[in-house]
Amino acid sequence: MSNSPKMTRRQFVTVIGAALSSFIGAVIGLPAIGYLLSPALEKQQGESWIPLGPLEKYPINQPTLFTFTRTKKHGWEKTVTSYGVFVLRTSETQVRVFSNVCTHLSCRVNWKPDVQEYICPCHDGHFAIDGSIISGPQPRPLDEYEIKIEDGNLFIFLKET
Amino acid sequence: MFRRLFQWLDERLGLTTIHDVVLDRKVPKVNWWFTLGSASLFLFLLQGITGIFLTVYYVPSPDHAYDSVQYIMNEVRFGWLIRGIHHWGASLMVLVVFIHMLRTFFFAAYKYPRELTWLSGVVLLLATLGMGFTGYLLPWNQRSYWATTVGTEIAGTVPLVGPFILSVLRGGSELSAITLARFFAVHIWFLPALIAATIGLHLYLVIRLGISHIPDESD
Questions:
Q1: Does B67 touch chain A (CB under 8 A)?
Q2: Quick one: pLDDT at residue B103?
Q3: pLDDT tens digits for A29-64?
Q4: Within its chain, how far is the Cα of B6 from the centroid?
Q5: A36 in contact with B at a CB cutoff of 8 Å?
Q6: What is the mean pLDDT of chain A?
Q7: By the CB < 8 Å criterion, does A76 face chain B?
Q8: Distance of alpha carbon A99 from alpha carbon A87, whole angstroms
Q9: Which of A79, A93, A138, B53 could be disulfide-bonded to A104 (CB atoms 3.0-4.6 Å)?
Q10: How does pLDDT run across B133-159, given as a tens digit for each residue?
Q11: What does the alpha-carbon distance between residue B24 and residue A152 come to, in Å, rounded to a whole number?
Q12: What is the rounded CA–CA span in Å between residue B44 and residue B127?
């Protein structure tokens, strides 16, 4: 583009054409990015205390699987998500609750009573009864839930992200 | 640097030649009515782009079609804009393509040697109307359901083969999930492919033959 004060008709049309095209492209292109990313930017946070029943039904020193489902709205559909937690009652009044989601790549771990370990079937991750790492690729111990006991009933605090 | 890069590409791709042949061709003195072909092409591309974006969320099933459109309109960011452009662009495209045809007709631009341009234009006009007809069903609301019921019923009044055409269009005797799925397929694959290919032929002919001048006393 020449810097002369006089612009040819052709140059003028080129500039206007480019400007209009860019404007139209931006008007459609920029919202289109938001349009594609939209579900990822949706924050559906929920917090709730999940009842796990009377504490006394859980045997001492023996991780017991408790499962429940939560329903979430995804777009035009409700999706039911299953959760599994291991309840480990360490004494009459003491209890710890671990998520069964492997901290490696989110497979579900199983409690193996014969070896007294949680084992992840996907990549052979081994966790001890208290959720700590024994061996395997997992970066951190099993996630633990915040708990409360009211009138002998056990609750865990679930944060949905 | 930029010029050397351009020269390197130009030598191999022939960009200058393409520019000269496609955009820098000689045209007679024309007026604004001669811009309708470019406008039609622009609208086709706009419909194509917004249509591709709509398929990200739209589901062509009676269970979810209506809800997914509601989702696009009310919850997806700028969903109202993308679908709005597609909705209004569709009506505008039929209008512009039709006026483009009227211009060609009244300026007698369909005559020798441009008969094939005209014929491919007829295909494009009919395909555009087909896009309108098939796209109208996709929101799967009351209006689109009954419009398609009536539209396919009209097609069924053709003598002898009418009932057959009706059942081919509907994929059965009633409007159903099959109707919605085949209208969707025709709307996003069959007709766009036909239109894109025919536009290629149409533009080739326009470039090869040049455009005709506005008729005057000597014609």
A1: yes
A2: 96
A3: 999 999 999 988 887 777 889 999 999 899 999 999
A4: 34
A5: yes
A6: 91
A7: yes
A8: 9
A9: A138
A10: 999 999 999 999 999 999 999 999 999
A11: 86
A12: 11
Burial A81-98 (b: 16+ CB within 10 A, else e): eebebbbbbeeeeebbbb
What does CATH list as the number for A46-160?
2.102.10.10
Encoded tokens for B54? 């709509």
Number of residues assigned to chain B: 219
Which residues, including other chains, have CB under 8 Å from residue A23's CB and lie 6 or more apart?
none
- A75 vs B contacts (CB less than 8 Å): 57, 68, 71, 75
Cβ contacts of A103-111, under 8 Å, gap ≥ 24: A103/A138, A103/A139, A103/A140, A103/A141, A103/A142, A103/A143, A104/A136, A104/A137, A104/A138, A104/A139, A108/A84, A109/A142, A111/A63, A111/A65, A111/A86
Q: B54, B55, B76, B85: which to substitute to probe chain A, counting the most A Cβ within 10 Å?
A: B76
- Name all domains of chain B by residue range, CATH numbers in brackets: 32-209 (1.20.810.10)
**Token pair in block for residue B78:** 């700028």
The answer, for B79 touching chain A at a CB cutoff of 8 Å, is: yes
Give the CA distances from residue A44 to residues A36, A72, B31, B76, in Å, rounded to whole numbers and listed in that order.
18, 8, 55, 14
Q: Which of A16-20, A73-77, A134-138, A144-148 has the lowest mean pLDDT?
A: A73-77
Distance CA A64, CA A100 (A): 11
**Confidence tier at A3 by pLDDT (50, 70, 90):** low
